[in-house]
Amino acid sequence: MVGVTDIDLAGARALAESLRQVYTAVATRIGEDNAASPLVAKVTDHLGCPLSDVVVVEEKYRLYEHAALQTAADLYLGAHSPGAQWFGIVGGERRWESIINMLLSAMREGSRMLGRPDYGTAPIGPEATIEVVQLGLVATTAPDGTPVVVGLSNRDDYDSYSLLTVLSAGREAATAVRDEVDRLKREHDPFRGQVLSFGFSEHRDNELLTFLPRPELGAEEVVLPEGRLEAIEDHIVGIAEQADRLTEAGQHLRRGLLLYGPPGTGKTHTTRYLIGRLRDHTAVLMTGPAMGKIDYAVALARKLQPSIVVVEDVDLIAEDRSHHETSPLLFSLLDAMDGISGDVDVTFVLTTNRVEALEHALVQRPGRVDLAVEVPPPDAVARERLIRLYARNRPIAADTAKVVAATEGVTASYIKELLRRVILVALRSDAPALTDDHFDTALQAMSGDSQALTRALLGSQETPSARTHGDAKDHRAPARLQPPSC
Fold this sequence. Notes:
Strand content: 15-25%
Number of strands: 14
Distance between the termini: 128 Å
CATH superfamily of the largest domain: P-loop containing nucleotide triphosphate hydrolases
Shape: elongated
Number of domains: 3
C-alpha cells in the first residue's frame, strides 16, 4: 500500500497543472464556440457589443394586454424597420427564463439555439383575432438610429404575464424604445371601444377577458316608470356628450349610477341600453367571481377611457360593514372608484337587488354614486307596453287589459317569458295572431304548482316559501280571458 510519504509531490503538482490547463483550454474553446453560435451572434453582431455589455430594459404587462403589445410592436417596426423578421430561441424549458438568461445559456452551455419564433393568437373583438409572438426577437433601431433588439415573451413566474424586452448597448436607446412601444400600445389598443367581460378560468391566473357584441337596443325597448330613463340618460349620456365642454369649464367627468330593485325588473336591460348608447366607450362588465379582479378592470377602464364599468349585484361584495364581516373586495371597489381623477371619463354603473344592505360608504359619499334610480316591477301601463314589445310585432287579437290584470305584481322578466310561451302555443296551432286562448294556456301553465320555482326565478312576488297549499289556487289563478267583443 502506498503511503502519503511515498507520493511524488512534484509529479502530482505537475499532473494537476496539466489537468488544469486541459480543463481551461476546453472551457475556453466551448465558450468561444457558444459565443459564436448563430443565436448569440445574431444579437451581438447587430448590437455591436459582446453579450456581457448588453443593457436590458423590460416592461411587464397583464396577459390580456398581449394583443395590444403586439399591435404596438408591429407599428414600431413598421416605422423603424419595415423589413425586419422575427427570430426565436429553441431548446430546453423556456417558460421560466428571461430572454437575456436564455442568451447567456446559449453562450455558456450551448443549451439554446437560433430558431423560429413561437406564435399564438389573441382575440381583439367578438369575432376577430390577431397572431402574436409568444417568444421571439427582432433586430431594429431606436428612434435615434441606435441598434436594438426587441423581444416579446409570455412568462410563468409567481404569476403569468407578457414581457417586453429591449436589448441595446446603451440604456437611453433601450428606454426610448420601451417608452415608444408603450405609447403606441396606449394609443392603438384594440380593446378601446370594445365591450369586455372579466370572467373566471382555472388557468391564466383567473384573468379571462371575453369580448361581447355591443347591444343594439332602442329607447322604446327599455320600459321604466315615466321620466326615469330620461334622468339616467341625462346623467350618463348627457355628460358624455358634453365631456369636452365640461372639462373646459373645470367640471369633473367621473360619475356613478346605482340601479336598484327586485330581480328581473330590468336593471341589467337598462345597463345594456346604456352600453349601446355609448358606442365610443369601452365597456367593462364585472359579475360573479370576476369581481376579484375589480382593480384590474378599473385600471383597464382608466387606460381605455372614455369607458363604463358595470358591476352587477354589487351587494355581493359591498354589504353594510355593521352587519357582516367586511369583504376585502369592498375596499378594492372603494379604492378603485376613489382612484379615478375628476378629468378621467369613467362611468360606474352598479346594480343591486338589496339596496338596504349596501355599505353606506359606497352609496352616501359624493363622487362614488351620484344618482340612484329605482327599477320597480312594472305597473299596468308598463306591463301593457312590455306585452306588445315582447310580442315582437306579432298581431295580438287578445284582450290585453285582462292580461295586464292577470299579471299584476310580476316583473319584466316574467312577462318576457310569458310572451315566449304564448308565441310557442300560437306557433303550434299555426295561428297568425295571439289570442285569448293562447294567453290563457300560457298563464295557466306558468301559475301551476310545479312552476313555483320558475316564478321565483323570474322575479314574481310570489315565492315557493311564501305560499301555502290552502291558498295556492286562489292566489295563482289568473282571470280567465274572454274573446274581445266585436
